[in-house]
Amino acid sequence: MKDFTNKVAVITGAASGVGRGLANQCAVEGMKIVLADIEKDPLLKAENELRQTGAQTISVLMDVSKLEDVERLANTTIKEFGEVDLLFNNAGVGTRENIWESTINDWKWVLGVNLWGVIHGVKIFTPIMLKQNKECFILNTASGFALINGSSIYGVTKRGILSLSESLSIQLKQIKSKIKVAVLIPGFVNTNIANSARNRPSELQNKKTFLEGDLEDKEEGLRYNAQSLISQGMNPDYFAKIVFHGIRKNKFHIIGDPAIKFLFNTRVSRILRDIKYFEKHISEIK
Ligand SMILES: NC(=O)c1ccc[n+]([C@@H]2O[C@H](COP(=O)([O-])OP(=O)(O)OC[C@H]3O[C@@H](n4cnc5c(N)ncnc54)[C@H](O)[C@@H]3O)[C@@H](O)[C@H]2O)c1
């Protein structure tokens, strides 16, 4: 896709950070924009500010972890703008505890938003795009942690998003669909992600028990560390320009920080080392 004028973009997590940067760039490209987010005030602020630039914009207050909300998002988009050309499954949250220390509520919350959010977007919007039968894009925001090791539950969801997107892309090609798929792999971007807990639903909060008395202090320490890295990150508007460059060039992996190459090579080398070991020794195992 080269010309985006009057095309329709749907962006989840559009009220802040990467999503807000994408929305700004969609406006620059002359697109109609559907902003979706769980946080009401920043969502309305984004809608107002984009309208002031002349962009045709609507907002939908919703939760990507709920299938019915994503269905409502799709229905509103079609009712208002008649079609969807770019879907950004972007909403995401993060925690950074060790795997064994993460609570079941941590898993439910982060998987619910990051992975189920993308699953819901793909499930609801792909049939609509297939029916439209014209070039359109599904863009799923993963992370460098989709390619390299680490980051606990967050990393699990981002590797899952990469795998889902790879399968989706191959299967759509097999049926000669005009839908294209891409994965956004930002480096550090200066956003509010270290404050993800602001949107954590009350039923998935961690209960402070006698044994877990220090949990809140620990979460606060991790939040502080993450915040200092994120605040030195790239401007979201610049990352959005990289994304649109990637779409125009038909790239599947849209990479915000190519320096990830070193850590990716380290991970692949470890895997190759073990493959080579078994290549040599598997026939000796009786
Ligand atoms: N900031 C980075 O350095 C970085 C790096 C790699 C990947 N990412 C990814 O970028 C995406 C956007 O994150 P960000 O960094 O802009 O953070 P952010 O907190 O600034 O923005 C995330 C947005 O998602 C919304 N959101 C949260 N839960 C939601 C839900 N259940 N339903 C709908 N909306 C919800 C938030 O209200 C917020 O507006 C995420 O998928 C994140 O994992 C960010």
Protein traits:
286 residues; alpha/beta; Rossmann fold; 7 strands; 13% strand; binds nicotinamide-adenine-dinucleotide
Topology:
Layout: E1 8-12, H1 17-28, E2 32-37, H2 40-52, E3 57-61, H3 67-81, E4 86-89, H4 104-132, E5 136-141, H5 152-174, E6 179-185, H6 215-231, H7 236-248, E7 253-255, H8 260-281
The protein binds nicotinamide-adenine-dinucleotide.
Nicotinamide-adenine-dinucleotide (NAD) binds at residues 12-13, 15-19, 37-39, 63-65, 90-93, 113, 141, 143, 186, 188-189, 191-193, 196, 199, 230, 233.
How many individual domains? Answer: 1
State the helical fraction: 40-55%
**Main sheet makeup:** 7 strands, parallel
Order of helices and strands: EHEHEHEHEHEHHEH
Number of helical stretches of at least 4 residues: 8
The rough form would be described as globular
Q: What's the CATH first level?
A: Alpha Beta
What is the name of the CATH superfamily?
A: NAD(P)-binding Rossmann-like Domain
Bound molecules: nicotinamide-adenine-dinucleotide
Q: How would you describe this structure to a colleague?
A:
- With 286 residues, the protein is an alpha/beta fold.
- The protein has one domain: NAD(P)-binding Rossmann-like Domain (Rossmann fold, 3-Layer(aba) Sandwich).
- Helix content is 50%, strand content 13%.
- The protein has helices at residues 17-28, 40-52, 67-81, 104-132, 152-174, 215-231, 236-248, 260-281, and strands spanning 8-12, 32-37, 57-61, 86-89, 136-141, 179-185, 253-255.
- Strand 4, helix 4 and strand 5 (136-141) form a beta-alpha-beta unit.
- Helix 1 (17-28) crosses helix 7 (236-248) and helix 4 (104-132) runs parallel beside helix 5.
- The structure holds nicotinamide-adenine-dinucleotide.
